[in-house]
Design a protein that fits this description.
This protein has 269 residues and is of the alpha/beta class. It folds into 2 domains: 72 residues, Rossmann fold, CATH 3.40.50.1970; 180 residues, Dehydroquinate synthase-like, alpha domain (Up-down Bundle). It is built from 11 helices and 7 strands. Strands 1-2-5 form a 3-stranded parallel sheet, with helices on one face. Helix 3 runs antiparallel to helix 4 and helix 7 packs across helix 10. The relative contact order is 0.12. The model has no long low-confidence stretch (mean pLDDT 95).
């Protein structure tokens, strides 16, 4: 931007996945104290989640998305044709965020995913269009109510407290973001109780995503979570399910339940 002598009338266009969107979005948020941004997501994860809502974040060795800004795009353009060239692993990783939306607010979407996992994995256009529309609309509605994440938007972090700790512990190298989120969804379902874990874990496996992270130390993961940006006074706030399709933020959960959820990330229990 400096080399191009970009002024305050510049428009930054981010074409790519979540990392590109975060980097370009942060540049747009900070260059000349903010210039216009257009997001053109080309991965499933960025179409359903990362490109919508104005969050930009940069990872540090100490944690996920610790540097960033809120900067809303002027426009988001998602062309499903770009998903045809997406590697299978990247496509599956995006499905983790789709499962998240189903769990926190759309039981019908969860059932659709269970019934159509095979067709989704071969990227049937009609299904992808329905999924992207449902998830993008859900996030847009939530962001309109709570742009700065002080209320309903916090529910979008379901599974992410666990997932971010996994990413940080593995140096952002072993798992894609969506893969870490998938493991986190299973841990959050365990923490929620109510017999939900089996169904959630079953769908995660159907979609070809990991549901555990062997070799990590639960205690170390839990310490990383204490530094999560959503923690307050060192106390971690978890998003839990009341049922599939309904979630809430919880504090003061029984220590044994919390420890069990972290233990479940690395071993069968």
């Amino acid at each position: 931007l400096a080399q191009a002598q970009a002024g305050r009338d510049a428009v930054v266009v981010a074409v790519g996945g979540g990392v590109v969107g975060d980097l370009a979005g942060f540049a747009a948020a900070t260059w000349n104290r903010g210039v216009d941004l257009v997001q053109v997501p080309t991965t499933l994860l960025s179409m359903v989640d990362a490109s919508i809502g104005g969050k930009t974040g940069i990872n540090l060795a100490q944690g996920k998305n610790l540097v960033g800004a809120f900067h809303q795009p002027r426009l988001v353009v998602a062309d499903l044709e770009t998903l045809k060239t997406l590697p299978d692993r990247e496509f599956r990783a995006g499905l983790a965020e789709v499962v998240k939306y189903a769990l926190i607010g759309d039981a019908g979407l969860f059932s659709l995913l269970e019934r159509n996992a095979g067709d989704i994995l071969v990227r049937r256009p009609a299904l992808l269009e329905k999924i992207v529309e449902k998830c993008a609309s859900h996030k847009a509605r939530v962001v309109a109510l709570d742009e700065r994440e002080s209320g309903p938007r916090m529910l979008l972090n379901f599974g992410h407290t666990f997932g971010h700790a996994i990413e940080t512990a593995t140096g952002y190298r072993r798992y894609l973001h969506g893969e870490a989120v998938a493991i986190g969804l299973c841990a959050a379902a365990r923490l929620s109780g109510k017999g939900l874990e089996g169904r959630v874990r079953g769908l995660i496996r159907q979609l070809g995503l990991p549901d555990r992270a062997p070799g990590l130390k639960p205690e170390a993961l839990q310490r990383l979570a204490a530094g999560d940006k959503k923690a307050r006074g060192g106390r971690v706030r978890y998003v839990v399910l009341d049922r599939i399709g309904a979630a809430r933020v919880a504090e003061g959960l029984p220590a044994a339940d919390v420890e069990g959820a972290w233990q479940g990330i690395v071993r069968n229990m």
